[in-house]
Amino acid sequence: MGIVPLERALQLAADVDLDLVEVAPMARPPVCKLMDFGKFKYESALKAREARRNQQQTVIKEMKLRPKIDPHDYETKKGHVVRFLKAGDKVKVTIMFRGREQSRPELGYRLLRRLESEITDLGYVEAAPKQDGRNMIMVLAPHRAVKASAVAATASRGAPRDRAAEESAAPAGGETPAAGETAAAGETGTTAETSGQ
């Protein structure tokens, strides 16, 4: 539309029942756009919600073991690790040493290597076992195929709930822009460059 005075730009916006929104305040002259600001805010909120839904949330679960763990307890804890990996979560496995056990870190290392060898089909070692004070820590991560299937499974279960949430978030009527969000070009100069929608 070109460079027009501020009063003319405001008049054009009022004539077509739209808002005059400043999109580039640092430009000389400032650039404004004629748009329905309420609709714009609603659409940008929908896009942000969709982007958040498509993000993959990384969850780190923790499993604590002792070097002298009973075989049955080890199998139970391994079952939890397998369940976490199948769900697409990372697992931080911690071996806790107490007292004289600290002088035998190879027991914990051997236990972590055994766990690693038993879950190779579901995940891999992201951080190798390392001693951290009284604890020995190893981080396991699921393979991409396992994580992708877990994400697909959760997406298919959560789809009906997400659709209902979107419908309840529909705009309640003519949203009006906040005072600071519809900046007029007159704040920085007497002319504004406008572009129709």
Automatic annotation (TrEMBL):
Keyword list, A-Z: Cytoplasm, Initiation factor, Protein biosynthesis
Every Translation initiation factor 3 N-terminal domain range: 1-51
Pfam families: IF3_C, IF3_N
Protein species of origin: Micromonospora coxensis
Encoding gene per record: infC
Comp. bias intervals (Low complexity): 167-197
GO molecular function, one term: ribosome binding
Family assignment from sequence similarity: Belongs to the IF-3 family.
Superkingdom of origin: Bacteria
Subunit and partners: Monomer.
UniProt subcellular location: Cytoplasm
Protein name from the UniProt record: Translation initiation factor IF-3
Translation initiation factor 3 C-terminal domain ranges (all copies): 59-143
A GO biological process held by the record: ribosome disassembly
